[in-house]
Amino acid sequence: MKKTVLLLILCVICSLQQGRAQSVTVDATIDSLQILIGEQAKITLQVSLDADKRAILPLYTDTLVRGVEIVEVAKPDTQLLNGGKRMLITEEYTVTSFDSALYYLPPMEVTVDNQAYRSKALALKVYSVNVPIDPENPEQFFGPKSVMKAPFVWKDWYGTIACLILLAPFAFLLVYLVKRIFDNKPIIRKVKVEPTLPPHLQAMQEIERIKSEKIWQKGESKVYYTELTDAIRTYINKRFGFNALEMTSSEIIEKLLEIKDKEAIADLRELFVTADLVKFAKHTPLLNENDANLVSAIDFINETKEKEDENAKPQPTEITIVEKRSLRTKILLGIGVCAVAAALIASLIYIGLELYNYFA
C-alpha cells in the first residue's frame, strides 16, 4: 500500500515538472542554410510562454559567432494567444559573412523567470562568389570594373552655391578697398559745409579770371566774348530768376527793361550787340572796345547787385572734400585688405577642392 502511494506521488511530481517545462518553448530557424559571400540570411527566434511570465532575449553586439556578422536586429514582435493566456515573442536577426566556411551557430539562450531555455543549434554554409568563365577562353580574366560616378543632383551643390553667394560681398569689398588704396582716397568721403557766394561775387570772380587770361590779346575775340556773355547770363539767371542762358540777347534786354531802368541796361545792350557781331558776323573789335565792354559788364553787375544784409546768414552748400589718408589709416587699411583677401582665397581653395573631389 505504501509503495502504491509513493508511486502516485512520484507520478504527480513528474507530471507537474513536465507541464512546467512544456510551458516555455524556444525555437530558432534560419531562412537559408547556404549563402554566397556578402549575401544575407535571417534567423528567426520564437519564444512561447505564459502571459504572466517575463522573458529576457539574448543580446548580441556585432557578431553571432566569429565570422558571422549581425547586420540588423529587428524589434521583437509580441502576439497574445489563447485569449491572452499565452504569448508568442518573435525576433529576427539579419546576418552575413565575408569568409567562406561552414559555421556552427550555437543554441540561443532565453531566460524566463531566472530559468534558462535554449533553442536548437543551427548551421550556415558560406560559399565564395562564382566567377563566370568563358569556356572557349578559360585563360582570359576580366579586371575589376571602374567606380561608377554618382548622377548630378542639385541638392549636393546647395552648400557650394550658398558659399559663393556669401563670398560675393567680400569680393566686392576687396575690390573696393584695393581701388581706394591705389587712388589714395579715404574709405568714407568726408563732406564739409561751406557758405555759398552771392551771384554778383561769383560773376566778378569769373570776370577776373577772363581779365587775367587776356584772351582778346591772343586774337581769340570770339572765345573772349562767349565767356564774358556767359558770365553775365549766369549772373542774370541767379539774380533775377529767369533763364537767360536759353534766351537771345534782345530777349534778355527786353526782360531786364521790365525790371530795371534804361540807364543801367544801356551799356549792357552795347556789350551784347558787339558780342553778337563777333560771334555771328566775324566782327573784329578794337582793343579799347574790348576793355570798354569788360568795364560795362562790371558796372552792370555793381548797379544791379542785390544789397547785402549784414545780419543775414550765408546760405550753406555741401562740398565733397577728398583728403589723403594718414599713415595709421593706411596701415589699418592694408591689414584689413590682407585679412579679407586671405579669407577669400582660403574659401575659394576649399570650394575648388570640393569641386575637384566631386568630378575626380
Describe this entry's structure for a reader.
With 360 residues, this protein is of the alpha+beta class. The chain folds into three domains: 104 residues, Immunoglobulin-like (Sandwich); 71 residues; 78 residues, no CATH class. It contains eight helices and 14 strands. Strands 1, 3, 5, 6, 7 and 8 form a six-stranded antiparallel sheet that branches. A three-stranded mixed sheet has the order 2-12-9, with no helix packed on it. The protein starts with a helix and ends with a helix. The relative contact order is 0.09. About 2% of the residues have low confidence.
Helices and strands in order:
Elements: H1 2-22, E1 25-30, E2 34-36, E3 40-50, E4 55-56, E5 63-65, E6 68-73, E7 77-81, E8 86-96, E9 101-105, E10 109-112, E11 115-118, E12 122-127, H2 158-182, E13 190-195, H3 199-213, H4 221-240, H5 249-257, H6 262-280, H7 287-304, E14 316-321, H8 327-359
Parallel strand pairs: 2-12
Antiparallel strand pairs: 1-3, 3-8, 4-10, 5-6, 6-8, 7-8, 9-12, 10-11, 13-14
Helix pairs in contact: 2-8, 3-4, 3-7, 4-6, 4-7, 5-6, 6-7
Structure characteristics:
Immunoglobulin-like; 3 domains; six-stranded antiparallel sheet; alpha+beta; 8 helices; rod-shaped; three-stranded mixed sheet
Task: State the domain count.
Answer: 3
Alpha carbon gap, first and last residue: 95 Å
- H/E topology pattern: HEEEEEEEEEEEEHEHHHHHEH
Helix content: 40-55%
Write out the CATH superfamily name of the largest domain: Immunoglobulins
Could you tell me the strand content as a percent range? 15-25%
